Amino acid sequence: MAGIKKSPFHAAQHVYAWRLFSNSGEILSSNDDAPWVLFDGPDNLGLYSAIAQASTHLPKGSILAMFAPQEELLHVFGEGLTSLKQRDFRKRNKKPYVHRDQIKSVYGLAVDSDIELLALNPNSSDEFENLGLIGDFARERLREALEQDAND
User: Fold this and answer.
1) Residue 10: burial class (beta carbons within 10 Å; 0-12, 13-18, 19+)
2) Is 61 helix (H, G, I), strand (E, B) or coil?
3) Alpha-carbon span 18 to 51, nearest angstrom
């Protein structure tokens, strides 16, 4: 995900990019060819759209290991869906997540599709490289979308 924060000069907007890799490292699917669209709201909102889109490309019973630069992903899905449901979609301090509605929606999609969502820190060099590449791609997509928006 990449985004611009809210300021007196502009509203918070973001773009998101996702890539789904197999265990062997091959790209199974991505949104690389999606149009460059600026979405309103902070970039963390894009996390849940990306998860929902990527999960539609998985067979039932899959485990989606997710890597993202946003710490929110680790806090929300770091212990799996069962823990998230037991905490009633709340943080450990019992406060609701800012994006609780989006989290519940993604949870529902995952349960309906029998998919486990688990956020992890990258471990292997391939995982770090892929995270860096998709981050670079998201920032480039943001630059292109901002330029396109400025020219409209």
Assistant:
1) exposed
2) coil
3) 8
pLDDT digits (tens, 9 = 90+) for 94-104: 999 888 999 99
- The confidence band for 134, taking pLDDT boundaries of 50, 70 and 90, is confident
Specify the pTM. 0.82
Q: Give every CB contact of residue 89 below 8 A, 6+ residues apart in sequence.
A: 96, 97, 100, 103, 104, 107
Average pLDDT over residues 72-96: 91
User: Which residue type occupies 6?
Assistant: K
Alpha-carbon distance 82 to 63, whole Å? 13
Mean pLDDT score, 132-142: 88
Separation between Cα atoms, residue 103 and residue 90, nearest integer Å: 10
Q: How many CB atoms lie within 10 A of CB 21?
A: 17
Quick one: which of 108, 129, 110 has its CA closest to 118? 110
| Identity of the residue numbered 119 | A
pLDDT of residue 1: 63
